[in-house]
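*Target chain*
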Amino acid sequence: MPIRKTLLAVAAGLALLASQGSTYADDAATAAVASDANGKYADKEGNPTYKIQEDGTVDWYTYSGYRRFNSECHVCHGADGAGSSFAPALATSLKSINYADFMAIVAGGRKNLSGGNEKVMPAFGDNKNVYCYMDDLYVYLRARAVGDLPRGRPAKHENKPDAAKEQETSCMGG
């Protein structure tokens, strides 16, 4: 099965499960680290999350998400996810978009054609520079949305874990 179809199927399944609950609202308590698997952090629900140390050092995946966002997403969604006339402020939107919905939107795209304000997010399910790093993008934007990560490039970050190197090589085909 092509990667895009696999991503869309997984994202659709996750979105269906998530939509069966109540309204989603993210905050620092919900985003708190509950587990660590080789430098990749998860909250108590098992969703990817970020870790920022007291000295401002961010985990590798948050830093990678910053880099990927500024490579692929900032043109429409503005610097640091602050929004633009083309697309919404993801630093605000992710307060109410759960992980499954985020994955579905990024992989499959989205259209908002209401009120004469036509906005279309293209599908990135075929773009390796995006889909290989969707968790990284999510944790970066989640940290921005919750308010734990200020605007701008993180000054310090953890080293890239071996697991991240292996996943990147596997996904990018190198």
Summary: The chain has one domain: 3-172. Residues 7-22 have pLDDT under 50 and may be disordered.
